[in-house]
Amino acid sequence: MTRRVVVTGVGLVCALGIGTEESWKNLVAGQSGIDYITHFDATEFDCKIAGEVKNFDPFIWIEKKELKKMGRFIQLALASADFAVRMAEWKPEQSDLDEVGVYIASGIGGFDIIEREHIKLMQGGPGKISPFFIPSAIINLASGHISIRYGARGPNSATATACSASAHSIGDSFKIIERGAAEMMICGGTEATITPMGVGGFASMRALSTRNDEPQRASRPFDADRDGFVVGEGAGILILESLEHAQKRNAPIFAEIVGYGMSGDAYHITQPAENGDGAYRVMRAALKDAKLSPDDIGYVNAHGTSTPLGDAIETTAMKRLFGERAISKKLPVSSTKSMTGHLLGGAGGLEAGISVLALRDQILPPTINQEKPDPACDLDYVPNVARKATVDYALSNSFGFGGTNAALIFKRWTGK
């Protein structure tokens, strides 16, 4: 018999708030977290805006002597994990820690550290490179630090599958628990790439919005005037447990994870397949895993990055899968990247958490900046204002460079 896996904690840190409930409150209110870049001087950059985590104080979670061993992506992950663990009401002594794992993704890892240490090398030679450079920057150290903090000795891993990374980490963790290789997983993703190289690199690809005079209106998924994504930072981490483990410790349960799909476009290093085939197949795979039909899905948290090509292609894929329900605007779809920016490797974790909270509260967060209809994007995108709705299943999409795709399906928890 397949083991059931539930969500008992959600930890969110993003441009809309430091903490799960603050982030969720501002999402539902339709606020934008996008503003001018403060992490570095962006005067000479084509893109001068981003979704920064504002007023983040790492010393709340990390001792001063430890901070020098961590890039910002690790710091954000530790904070997010703390919020998730607190929400789950979990203490390490409640579990056999050999059965508790950690699986935290990042698309790029410690870009800030790589840039800083390279400057030291160029200015002062190799003797100036910090001995903590490598462990501060490599992607799996977010998982490493979290496992050390909580004593979690079970499966420990990290994915780096671009913008699908943390959705893959959550899906993989779901399967680890389902097959009995762990009882609990701390999983999700983190990213902190608002750096000169990060912003400059994406800008050179012409992937970023240049609506610099209106930061809060720049991320506008599915709108006709969209001109690129806005990079965001932060972390989204879930606590997944076997139903038996959660019930044994009388944990709060907020949703059940029931489906996970993976696919590859095999098409282009940065562009999605023009017919949306990869997106279609990954959603179909998640439905097959969950033993559901398209009609069961009540809400889709879209990948929806605000790029001209990507949003239209995802729309095409949803029409193909959901058919008349999507075409006749009876399937609510929203992109919360309109408010948070695009967390790259952390996006899937953040948006999985948002999907769980949407099921918990039966409220669908909006797609803000929906002002000008696009004939190629003509679904119900929950425009501008959150909506109360009765939803039993939510699907969350994540698509990454290289044509790597992930889809997760969550079920409303009713106590059964």
CATH class: Alpha Beta
- What CATH architecture do you see? 3-Layer(aba) Sandwich
- The shape is globular
Sheet/helix structural class: alpha/beta
Overall mean pLDDT: 97
* Rg, alpha carbons: 20 Å
Distance between the termini: 17 Å
Number of helices: 14
What name does the CATH topology carry?
Peroxisomal Thiolase, Chain A, domain 1
Report the sheet with the most strands, covering strand number, pairing sense and barrel closure: 11 strands, mixed
How many discrete structural domains?
1
What is the total tally of β strands? Answer: 15
Approximate helicity band: 25-40%
Q: Beta fraction of the residues?
A: 15-25%
SSE pattern, N- to C-terminal: EEHEEHHEHHHEHEHEHEHEHHEHHEEEE
Determine the CATH superfamily. Thiolase/Chalcone synthase
As residue ranges, the low-confidence spans are none
